[in-house]
UniProtKB/TrEMBL annotation:
InterPro entries: Alkyne_AA_exporter (IPR052756), EamA_dom (IPR000620), EmrE-like (IPR037185). The chain crosses the membrane at residues 12-33, 39-59, 68-87, 99-119, 126-145, 151-171, 183-206, 218-239, 246-265, 271-287. It comes from Mangrovihabitans endophyticus. It comes from the Bacteria. Residues 300-326 have a biased composition (Low complexity). Belongs to the EamA transporter family. Keywords: Membrane, Transmembrane, Transmembrane helix. One of its GO terms (cellular component) is membrane. PANTHER family: EAMA DOMAIN-CONTAINING PROTEIN, TRANSPORTER, DRUG/METABOLITE EXPORTER FAMILY. It holds the Pfam family EamA. Residues 293-326 are annotated as: Disordered. This is Membrane protein.
Length: 326
C-alpha cells in the first residue's frame, strides 16, 4: 500500500502542474490579446510549441508517425491546434478569462457526445442530460455578459466554437494514438496547427515589432509551458494513475482561472455569469457520472502495461478526453 502511494505521488504532482499550466493559459491569452490578434497569437504559440516539442522528439529519436496515424494527426492539428486556438483567442478578446474557461469546460461533454456518435461508444441518458444542462449554463453566461453591442455574446459563441473544435480534434486524434506515440501525435499535430495558422504570419511579424515585451513573453510562455510542458506532465501522470482520478482534476481549472485572472488582471465574472458557469460544470459532472457507457469515452480506466500496448501509447489514448485545453 505504501509503495503504491509512493508511485501515485509523482503522478498527482505532475497532474497538478498540468492543471496549473492549462489554467494559466487563459490568463496569458487574455493578457497577450491586447497586443496580438487571435491568429497571430495562435501562430506564435504553435511555432514556439513546435520548436520545443521538435527538440524533445529529436533528442528522444521518436521517429516519424506511421502512415495510419496521419489522418488523425492532420484533423486534430487543423481543428484542435489550429481552429481551437484561434477561436479561443478571439473569444477572450470579448469576455474575461474566467468566463471563457467556464464555457470551454463543456468540451468533455462534447467529446463524449462525438465519441458516442462517431466512435460508436454509446449515448447514455446521463450524457444527454449533461449536454442540456451545460448548454443552458452557456446560455445564461451569454445573456448575463451581453453588452449593448453584442460583443460579449459573440465572445461566448466563440468560446463555444472553441469547445466544439477542441472536442472534434480530440475525437479525431484518438484513432491516431493507436498507431503512434503521444509524443509523435502531439509534436506533429502542433506542427500542423502552426501550418494552418501560417496565413497570419504577416500579422505576427508586424504586431511583434510593436508589441510590448510582456505580451511577447506571454506568447512564448504559452508555447513552452501550457502547450509543450503541460502535455508532457499530463501523459506522465496518466501513465501512472487512472483516467477517472485525473479527470476529476479538470474541475479545478475554471476556479483557478477565476483566481488567477482576479490577481493578475483584476477580472472577476459577475455573479450571474458565475452561476451560468457553475451550470456548465454541473452538466459536465452529470455527463461524467459513473456508468459503463458514460466513462467509456475516456479510454480504459486503469492504465496498464502490456507487451502489445506500451504504457505511453495506452495513456495517450485518453489523455485529452476530459481536460479542457487552452
Amino acid at each position: 500500500m505504501t509503495d503504491k502511494a509512493g508511485r501515485q505521488t509523482p503522478a498527482l504532482l505532475a497532474a497538478g502542474v498540468t492543471v496549473l499550466l492549462w489554467a494559466s493559459a487563459f490568463v496569458s491569452i487574455r493578457s497577450a490579446g491586447g497586443a496580438y490578434s487571435p491568429g497571430a497569437l495562435a501562430l506564435g504559440r504553435m511555432l514556439t510549441g513546435t520548436v520545443v516539442l521538435g527538440v524533445v522528439w529529436a533528442v528522444r529519436r521518436a521517429g516519424w508517425p506511421p502512415r495510419a496515424a496521419w489522418p488523425g494527426i492532420a484533423v486534430a492539428g487543423v481543428l484542435w491546434f489550429g481552429g481551437y486556438m484561434v477561436a479561443l483567442n478571439a473569444g477572450e478578446r470579448r469576455v474575461d478569462a474566467g468566463t471563457a474557461a467556464l464555457v470551454v469546460n463543456i468540451g468533455p461533454v462534447l467529446i463524449a457526445l462525438l465519441g458516442g456518435w462517431l466512435l460508436r461508444e454509446g449515448l447514455p441518458g446521463r450524457l444527454v442530460a449533461g449536454i442540456a444542462v451545460s448548454f443552458a449554463g452557456a446560455a445564461v453566461v451569454g445573456w448575463s455578459t451581453s453588452g449593448h453591442d453584442g460583443s460579449s455574446v459573440l465572445g461566448v459563441v466563440l468560446c463555444l466554437l472553441a469547445a466544439v473544435t477542441y472536442a472534434a480534434g480530440v475525437v479525431a486524434q484518438k484513432p491516431a494514438l493507436r498507431h503512434a506515440s503521444a509524443l509523435q501525435v502531439t509534436t506533429f499535430g502542433c506542427a500542423v496547427g502552426a501550418a494552418v495558422c501560417l496565413p497570419f504570419a504577416g500579422q505576427l511579424v508586424s504586431e511583434a515589432a510593436d508589441a510590448p515585451l510582456t505580451a511577447t513573453l506571454n506568447v512564448v510562455y504559452l508555447g513552452v509551458f501550457p502547450t509543450a510542458l503541460a502535455f508532457t506532465t499530463w501523459a506522465y501522470a496518466l501513465a501512472r494513475t487512472t483516467a477517472g482520478r485525473l479527470g476529476a482534476t479538470t474541475y479545478l481549472v475554471p476556479a483557478l482561472v477565476v483566481l488567477m485572472a482576479w490577481v493578475a488582471l483584476g477580472e472577476v465574472p459577475g455573479l450571474l455569469a458565475l452561476g451560468g458557469g457553475m451550470l456548465c460544470l454541473l452538466g459536465v459532472a452529470v455527463s461524467r457520472g459513473r456508468s459503463g457507457q458514460a466513462t467509456a469515452v475516456s479510454g480504459p480506466t486503469p492504465v496498464t502495461r502490456t507487451a502489445a500496448a506500451p504504457a505511453s501509447s495506452e495513456a495517450a489514448r485518453s489523455t485529452s478526453a476530459s481536460m479542457p485545453q487552452s
